[in-house]
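Q: Here's a chain of 129 amino acids. Please give me its 3D structure as tokens.
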Amino acid sequence: MEPMEINGGRFYARPLHDDDRIDDRPALGEVFGRPVEPDFVDRARADWTADRAYTWAICEQTSVFMLALATLTLHGDGEASLEVLPAGDPDRMLPNDPTLPPKSVGDGVIEGTGTVERWARGFRGLTLR
């Protein structure tokens, strides 16, 4: 399967990037507490193509900056497990338009989890463990 974006309302899930426009590797370093290998995003793309695991950057609707990493791991039996990890402090408040309700990185984790769960069940027909 090709990597795809999922619109979830205030937060969306997009494929990982490491190009001249968007480079998620610094945010991935925040997720894991250490720099990631230079080929991390390439390996994530390969996992998509092989239907082993799907990864997304969870972002706020007005930004491309990664707030969390969502990983949906397929188990080959119609089941999958989902892990969504924050990039940095989950209590960090996001800068946003004053007409929108304030949100934190942790809100992005919660709402991003729901978005990916709905996609996994509805689009892929997976059972989540």
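Q: Can you summarize the key feature?
A: The two ends are 21 Å apart (CA to CA).
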